[in-house]
Write a structure and sequence with these properties.
mainly beta, 4-stranded antiparallel β-sheet, 10 strands, 4% helix, binds calcium ion
Length: 161
């Protein structure tokens, strides 16, 4: 798991090699499997320039929404500000927090950019016979306050539950 150099006793020659294939390390990994179900490249300006072309990732195991910024030449993700993540592996709760945008989605099964430019998240709850919810995430406006009383930058709207 993670970059091949981080796996003792495993080399590229141990991997399945299809004709014409080549190996590349993952651009990011979780030390414990998260069950990543979707990666959405946010082709929208709705959340402002800071999120344009950003990368939203969801998992089915914990219902966490992760967010990553692509690097300048779009060959990987920008983690320069966090030395603990420079190994490209989230292997502690602190490292997980650094890339977490939202929690509490139970299990994320799909993420999409809507035709309105907002972000849509579909959830799946294995513990409730597959019940799911659909959420729309929009930018917060002036005067919007979060449950904690602070100024949110994004708002979550339950659409179907
Ligand atoms: Ca790390
Ligand atoms: Ca999707």
């Amino acid at each position: 798991m993670g970059p091949i150099a981080a796996n003792t006793g495993v080399s590229e020659s141990d991997l399945v090699n299809m004709p014409g294939s080549q190996y590349a390390d993952p651009v990011f990994s979780w030390a414990e499997s998260r069950g990543v179900t979707d990666i959405e490249f946010f082709d929208s300006t709705a959340f402002g320039p800071g999120f344009e072309n950003g990368i939203f990732v969801g998992d089915i195991t914990t219902g966490t929404l992760f967010y990553f910024e692509p690097n300048a030449n779009r060959t990987g993700i920008n983690l320069e500000d966090d030395p603990l993540l420079s190994d490209l592996i989230a292997d502690s709760d602190d490292e997980m927090s650094a890339v977490t945008l939202g929690t509490g989605f139970v299990g994320i099964s799909d993420i999409e950019t809507g035709s309105d430019g907002n972000l849509y998240i579909l959830t799946f709850d294995r513990g409730a016979e597959g019940q799911g919810s659909l959420y729309r995430i929009t930018p917060a406006g002036e005067g919007d306050t979060s449950a904690a009383g602070g100024q949110p930058f994004l708002l979550l709207h339950p659409l179907l539950t």
